[in-house]
Amino acid sequence: MSSPQQPGGRSTRSATASDRTRSIDRWVPGVRVARTYERRWLRADLVAGIVLAAILVPQGMAYAELAGLPAVTGLYATIACLVGYAIFGPSRVLVLGPDSSVSPLIFAAIVPLLAGGDPATAIALAGMMALMVGLIEIGLGLGKLGFVADLLSKEVQVGYMNGLAVTIIVGQLPKLFGFSTDADGFIAELKAFVAGLDKTSATTLAVGVACLLVLLLLPRLTRRVPAVLVAVVGATVVSAAVGLAEHGVKTVGALPQGVPVPAFPWTSIGDVGPLLIAAVGITLVSLTDTIATATSFAARRGDEVDPDQEMIGMGAANIAAGFFQGFAVSCSGSRTAVAEQSGAKSQVTGLVGAGLVLILLLFLNGLLADLPQTTLAAVVIVAAISLMDFRILARYYRVRKSALVLSLVATVGVILAGVLWGIAIAVTLAILLFFRRNWWPHGAVLGRVEGVPGWHSIDEYPQARQLQGVVVYRWEAPLMFVNASVFRQQIRHLVHGQKPSWIVLQCEAVTDIDVTAAEMLEQLDKELNAAGIHLAFAELRSRLQDLVLRYGLYETLDREHFYPTLKAAIRDVEAAGPPDPS
Fold first, then answer.
1. What is the layout of strands, in order, in the sheet containing 562-563?
2. Domains present along the chain, CATH in parentheses
3. pLDDT higher than 70, residue 493
């Protein structure tokens, strides 16, 4: 028996199967990659995966210690998140893993909850937080709420990263010099470092500085060989050959063999609240970075970015990491760049990298036993340096000083109050500045400038010529309840100072008129008419003119005084002359 036919000639059964395939491809992009994978990509993905694995191991271990966790948990998180993102993530080349911008947030969140510094408890707390981050990200993705990443504006991001870089470097200095401190907080850590300089291990410092030089200088000579690979392999070989551990240089030691079985991380109900607050901060930071990185790499490859699916992919990666004794992860621009430069064609690259890390843990767990801890400190310090961008502060000073202030507040907040409070302070200030700009928006009186087309602010062009008896005024914000009184005061000030017969409002920048502003316009028009002044509107959007009609303002405002262009308004005003006071 034949299948029922649809109008286009396609059977209902085949249509249903096609819809089901599209749905699976939409929500599980890894299935689409597997279904459409081309054999000719395999060699490139294998090579890129091998190169990527050389970076995943040392950075994963370094960022785990930066988060206050055992180094091996960074490898667990790396494997789990790469597999999770390969299944649910939409990008073909984005590489996720432990990150220098997220690890300090994890450390700041779990340290206050630790009693006695038990590593098992720290791992459970970090795993709980990774699950929370994952659930938040998936919820945001399903709710199509990708715009939350915009809460961290560019200047806040710059300030946060600068402050974060400074705190990371100060925190890693003792390890680089071969000793440890118990201080907490930037000022205390800086004092403890200075006080402990007499405990410096000269051999440890020499190894650390040598690794720093390799990491900083080799990329200037060539990008073909990853500097972190040269530094890690070189330090490990020298350490094993010379026996640096016998000279007081602390090494990583053999890693635990195997990988953990999946388990639900849990400590106590009292830890949920503090971890949830930290999880929100981590989500903001990681999503902002992820969307920006995904967009930039997609543009270079001609791909499209699906921010909502990116959040779902990120969420799946974090949940996977949480179940396998890992911690919250984010995307990495540097590792993604390495994968792309190595010829990666798909997320198979990440799976190859994860597989090689897994092989290391199963069969070669002693391979990096002689790796000096100071090398990991050097890796973290160089990563922190890459986060810094102080040059852009000079640009902020030139173009917008409020952006400079906001960025510096974020930096100082992170340094003095800690990463979580620093972000909260900066975001709060950014929101307040947003309301400030809409509460007291900019307005300008316009005039004609000889030799310059159009109408321009008389503040920028003092030589601008105004029309006799006419004030052309540009309002540069929505008209709403927070600024309606400010608008009225500015119009009254112009009336008092210039005694015009007409006020022409240039409304190109007005994007909304709410109920409060509509009532204000009605009262203001009556007040101006009583003084023999007419109000005209130029370039008001048709949508807002319809809104004015619904508000019933045409009973007060003359509908003939709404013009499509400023030129048309001025032509009619000049032709009409002074209005009749009656």
1. 452-457, 443-449, 470-475, 502-506, 534-538, 562-563
2. 46-411 (no CATH), 442-576 (3.30.750.24)
3. yes
